[in-house]
Amino acid sequence: MSSAFPPCAQGDDRPAALPAVLIAGTLLGLLSTDVSACAVTKRADAVAEGQILIPDEMRPDIILHQGGNDRSGLEFINCPRVQRVDIESIPAMPGLTYVRNIRYDGQDYPAFGWHPTSPLIVFNLHKYSPGAPPGTDNTPFRADQANRIQVTTGHGGGFAMHMGLGYTIYSRGGPMSPVDPVMLSAVTTTPGFPGNGPMHHSLSFSLVIPARTCTLSDTDLQLAPVPADALLRVGQSAGEMPLRVKMQCPRDGIRVDLTLRDAVDRSNTGSTLTPVAGHASAGIAVQLMRDNAPVRLGSTWTPPLPHAGEQTIDLAARYLRTAGALLPGSVQGQAILTADYR
Known about the structure:
Layout: H1 20-35, E1 39-42, E2 44-53, E3 63-67, E4 74-77, E5 84-92, E6 97-104, E7 107-113, E8 120-128, E9 138-141, E10 147-152, E11 161-170, E12 179-189, E13 199-208, E14 215-216, E15 237-249, E16 256-262, E17 272-273, E18 284-290, E19 293-294, E20 300-301, E21 309-321, E22 335-341
Parallel strand pairs: 2-13
Antiparallel strand pairs: 1-4, 3-11, 4-11, 5-10, 5-12, 6-7, 7-8, 8-9, 8-11, 12-13, 14-15, 15-21, 16-20, 16-22, 17-18, 18-19, 18-21
């Protein structure tokens, strides 16, 4: 009769040693139990970036900003070595609408926008584990539906894994407008390890786009002399001449609000400029006109949307007889034209 154990030596009362294979089998079983847990140790992936300043880029699909937690997001330990792990992530990103796909690093990423002139945003579920093959870190992420993917745990020691929700801001193509503060979130679970429970991603920021501004040129106008008898009565005017201010704009469609003010007296709401000191005339002032009517200094108007390149703001100037004695001589007024952009 054969025996699974080696026979004891004659006269030897010591117990027979267990075969080494049984000890190895016990250790292997314990190791397998430890590494299959894939337990979460950090369950919050929060990125708060505040105001993000991006350029008003006219070309499409240009990267303007990239953000995310990289290796500081969700954290797991004791994940199975070189195995596929199921991930389910449900987004909560109101206001975003799918626009188109953008190709990056050999993959198509769905791009979303907040409104017709907003920049575009794409998301990636970024995974890092030691020793993982190159090119396996990023997975496209949809903001409008559940994301069910698999990730491969790494080859390195400790079997740790990090996961975060990253994003990239792209130019839409054409003029863009800012995005007010937003909160974008998602809840991620690992169905194969239900004990981990839900894990949370959150992104918060606003997108600020400095306006591309039009520039106004300094303009001097010398009114032609007029005889004193052309301005005998208060309210009479004479010598009207066009005053054309040049404006240069970098692109079409910039919304510009214009305001004309008296350079000497900012509180002036009339149509005549306060005479600059040092000139010898009296009873006369320079009056500004727009659209064949006296202007109202300090008021704002919006011209038609300008085009790219140079255009003209059409005003006019003339002499106006004011109250008091008329004393012939020179008169000078100064105005400031400002442009505000939206």
